[in-house]
Amino acid sequence: MIPLFLSVALCLASPHQSVISNTSITYVKESYIYPADSISILVKYHGYDEEEALQTFRILQRASTAARVYLVSEKMSVSECKQLAIDIYDLKYEDINNRGITAFFNWDDKSFDRVFALYDSILSPPGRSSIFITASEKFDRNGLSEEKRKEVLSHEIMHYWQDRTCNTSHDIESQAVRFGRYIRDKI
Ligand SMILES: [Zn+2]
């Protein structure tokens, strides 16, 4: 009993550090995105190489701008209740679905058993949020096509904006699904 308890406690203490140390992340780059006038958001990419980092920043920039417009179109306020930097972790599909690595995620509570991506701000360091996403097929044989990666990143960035604006009392999952499908061909 005791060893099990200890390992769970350690896991909860630094869930995202354990992701980094247990996966193939080798490259880190920081940049800012500017989704609207007077809003700048620090994004830290953890993944493969500079080209992929820059492509990821481009998608986040465009999807963030569009997500705010989308919230307004659905009669929701975009006034911010918190400010959050973003850590984005590019993981292999098998790693993101390895429950030893993503042990912080409440898998038991979900109706699905495989995911392409996860969003979290509860277990992230203060003032930060985290997006875990399946890597491009360039880096992972089970990875995402460029189009699918745009859809999945947009889905997760919608969760980010729902969180940042405290718009969380509606069906946040269906809104993120709709937004990802709507925007993937436009960014
Ligand atoms: Zn979702």
Structure description:
This protein is α/β, with parallel strands linked by helices and 187 residues long. It has a single domain, classed as Glutaredoxin. The protein has helices at residues 2-13, 15-21, 50-73, 93-96, 146-164, 172-183; strands at residues 27-36, 39-47, 85-91, 117-120, 128-134. Strand 4 and strand 5 (128-134) form a beta hairpin. Helix 3 crosses helix 5 (146-164) and helix 5 (146-164) crosses helix 6 (172-183). The model is unreliable at 1-13 (pLDDT under 50). The structure holds zinc ion (ZN). Zinc ion is lined by residues 155, 159, 173, 176.
**Lateral strand order in the biggest sheet:** 1-2-3-5-4
The molecules bound to the chains, other than polymers, are: zinc ion
Main beta-sheet strand count, sense and barrel state: 5 strands, mixed
Query: How large a portion of the residues is in β-strands, by DSSP E?
Result: 15-25%
Helix/strand structural class: alpha/beta
Oligomer: single chain
> From the coordinates shown, what is the CATH architecture?
3-Layer(aba) Sandwich
Helix and strand sequence: HHEEHEHEEHH
Tell me roughly what share of residues is in helical segments: 40-55%
